[in-house]
Amino acid sequence: MCGRFAMEEMLNDMVAEFGLKGLPNRELPMDWNIKPTQDIYVIKNETLEISSWGLIAPWSKTNAEALKSQSIAINARSETVHEKPTFKNAFRKSRCLVPASGYFEWATELGRYKPRQPIYVSRNDDKILAFAGIEDQWVSPDGEIRSSVAILTREAVGELAKAHHRMPMFLPRDRWEAWMDPALQDVNKVRSLFDNFQPDANLRYWPVADLVNSIRNSGPELIEAIDPVPETLF
């Protein structure tokens, strides 16, 4: 799964990378430790919007219920997203991309390191990542419309599978238009976009310090590579 990610690009970087034409009325600060329920950027076709990370359950009746549901619905498994009550309507009608500089994972498969060694994953060419996401709108008791989003995940492959068994869903660029097309609501056709490509193409990872474990920390030092001491039996 993806539990923290970084965004160190500015709006002009995203405009250039994604060909954006519509921009939000405010700019989010750079952040190297984005956490659940935080405001993040989402891309819907050629428009950049601001949403909140973690999908609010549609049946939430209070702000407290909304926040609680949001904190546990930050990721949606691509294998079952079309079936789960929290996610299925957004999956069918409102799909998006979530831009990121990179993301953190806590390695569970790297036996030579300590358990839950933090790693940072980014592109080889340092371009912006684009997670496949789903977005929905929730109306609070006082009438405020809140946008929230979940990031899709899938089984990890290739080198990433050596670190963790799950990874975010990255779709090939030539499938982005179909993915974000609100007119495409046939669930089977949407799910077919997940087939027959190399999801770990152009990705790399390296171990980083435990600084990312605290939500109070945020800075470029969080993504600096370290040389961790291998675990031994004695």
Which architecture name does CATH use? Alpha-Beta Complex
Instruction: Say how many strands there are.
Output: 12
Q: What's the CATH topology name?
A: hypothetical protein yedk fold
CATH class: Alpha Beta
State the share of residues found in helices, binned by percent.
10-25%
Anisotropy-based shape = globular
Could you explain the architecture of this structure?
The chain has 234 residues and is of the alpha+beta class. The chain has a single domain (4-223), classed as hypothetical protein yedk fold (Alpha-Beta Complex), CATH 3.90.1680.10. Helices cover 14% and strands 31% of the residues. The chain is built from 5 helices and 12 strands. Strands 3, 4, 5, 6, 9, 10 and 11 form a 7-stranded mixed β-sheet that branches. A 5-stranded antiparallel β-sheet has the order 2-1-7-8-12, with no helix packed on it. Strand 9 and strand 10 (145-155) form a beta hairpin. The longest helix has 10 residues, at 63-72. The chain is globular and about 50 Å long. The two termini are 31 Å apart. The mean pLDDT is 92.
Task: Name its key features.
alpha+beta, 234 residues, single chain, hypothetical protein yedk fold, 12 strands
Set down the secondary structure blueprint.
Elements: E1 4-7, H1 11-18, E2 31-34, E3 39-44, E4 47-53, H2 63-72, E5 75-77, H3 88-93, E6 95-100, E7 102-107, E8 117-123, E9 129-139, E10 145-155, E11 166-168, H4 176-179, H5 187-191, E12 203-207
Parallel strand pairs: 4-10, 5-10
Antiparallel strand pairs: 1-2, 1-7, 3-4, 6-9, 7-8, 8-12, 9-10, 10-11
